[in-house]
Each structure stands twice: as C-alpha cells, then as structure tokens.
Amino acid sequence: MRITVVGSINLDHVASAPRLPGPGETVTGATLARHPGGKGANQALAAARLGAEVTMIGRVGRDGMAGEALALLLEADIDVAGVITDAEAPTGVALIAVDPSGENQIVVAAGANYSVTPEQLPQRIEGPLILQLELPVATVEAAVGRAVGFVCINLAPAAPVSEALLRRADLIVVNETEAAYYGDLLHSGGGRVVVTLGARGAQLFQRGGLIAEASPPEVTAVDATGAGDTFVGAITVALLEGMAPEAALRFACAAGAIAATRPGAQPSLPMRDEVEAILAG
Ligand code: RIB
Description:
Blueprint: E1 2-6, E2 10-16, E3 31-37, H1 39-49, E4 53-61, H2 64-75, E5 79-86, E6 92-98, E7 104-109, E8 129-131, H3 137-146, E9 151-154, H4 163-168, E10 171-175, H5 176-182, E11 192-196, E12 202-206, E13 209-214, H6 227-240, H7 245-260, H8 272-279
Parallel strand pairs: 1-4, 1-8, 2-6, 4-5, 8-9, 9-10, 10-11
Antiparallel strand pairs: 2-3, 6-7, 11-12, 12-13
The structure holds alpha-D-ribofuranose (RIB).
Residues 8, 10, 12, 37-39, 42, 94, 106, 108, 134, 225-226, 228-229, 265 line the site of alpha-D-ribofuranose (RIB).
C-alpha cells in the first residue's frame, strides 16, 4: 500500500508550561523544545510507522528549519521527492503551549505551506490520498479532483470547503469542534465520517447513521499534540488493510492514545508493534 499525503510540514516550537495562558496573559516557568510537526507530515509519519509506504507532497523554506522538519520523514523512508524548497517563504512553524495535563494551544505560521499550489501536484494522484486543511483550500480541492483512489480528508483546522469535496471523500475525520462547524454538511456524501472524541474515543457514521464506536485504552496523557494526526494515519491504514469498522476504530484510538502519552508531535507517534501490544492488553 502506497499512500500519498498532500499536506503541511512544520517545525513545532513547544513550550511546556505550568498552565495555559488566558488572553493577554503571560505565563512563566516553561521549558522549550523543537520537534518536527505539521498535520500533513504527522499523518504521513503515522501511516509509515504503522506499516504503509508513503509519499509526501508539500513545501518547506530554504532555511535551517527545513532539515529538522523533514528528519523523521526521511528516517521512516517516506518519499519526499514531492516536497519542494521554496525560494522565499520560510518553513512553517507552530508555536505550541502544553500544560501538565497534556492540553495544548497552537498558533501556526504557515510559511511555505501556503505556497503549495495546484501546479505542484501530479495531474493524477494514484492510490490512497490523505489531506488536511493546513494548505490553501484551492490546492486541497485540486488534489481531491485529481485523486483516482481512496480519499481521506481530515477537515482540520475547520475552514469552508466545497460540497463537491465533501461528497468525493471516502472518509472524513473531524474532532467535535470541527463536527459542530460543518454540521449536517459532513454527511452530504456517501462516504464514512469519523468524529474523534479525545479520551472518550471515536464514532464512525455512514450516511448520518452511527455504524461503529470505540474507546481508547486508559493512558496517562502528557501531550495531546499529534494524537489526532496519529488517529487519521491509523484509521486510513486500518480501513485500507480491510479491517472491519469497529476494529479499525479501536486500532486508531489505541494509536492516538499512545501518541498522547509522549511529548511532541512526530517523536510521539507509535510503531505498529506498540499498537498491537496495547490492543492485546
Ligand atoms: O495536529 C498537530 C499539528 O498541528 C502540530 O504538529 C502543528 O504543527 C500543527 O500543524
């Protein structure tokens, strides 16, 4: 199975703080770390660590952050030939604050991610495709239009998209906030819709009807960053492998739960044997 991911690549700057700031507030006492991130790159790495071959299409800057942002994709043998170095825009950066319970706040400076244009995409995208909304929506729409296989779209962060895109998706993944943003539009196509519920698990709908649900194993969360992206990569791999809906949900919930037990986005993403071990109890 070779999955193509068209999506964002960031270098995350993570401040682990005693608590998250309110509007206009300064919180001191944090420690700083840098990790590769970006929803697209995270989902690509999640799928690769769970057993898929992956091709990444995206854009980074001509700067010192690009190598760091791509390091774990290269280590996982992800094909990054479709990642362009932009001559002007910097590598995308996410500023992330995390509190001791693992809750986070994220601000993204998209940089080169917003320079991924439809011209950068292949005319025809063979095989399964995963997308999110951290690239220009026109590029996401163009990618979906050129896809000839299974399409999974993670509508994150929520933004207006065409009804044609929603109808074309074989699988839509949203969290509760995104589900509320799109409302009934989510179910306008015949594809499956997964709503993730954090520590409460996830639900899978088809044509608006609930067909499966699952809860994650109990874990102690230290950083939720990347857990949702892990879920997206995992549910795509599981469904493409032919797992039944409930088993696929359980697999993806377990993968996401493991990611939440470790700091950072990409460093926290689980390997296949870890997910199988936690599922086996
Ligand atoms: O979903 C988590 C990701 O969102 C982070 O890695 C950050 O880069 C932002 O894009």
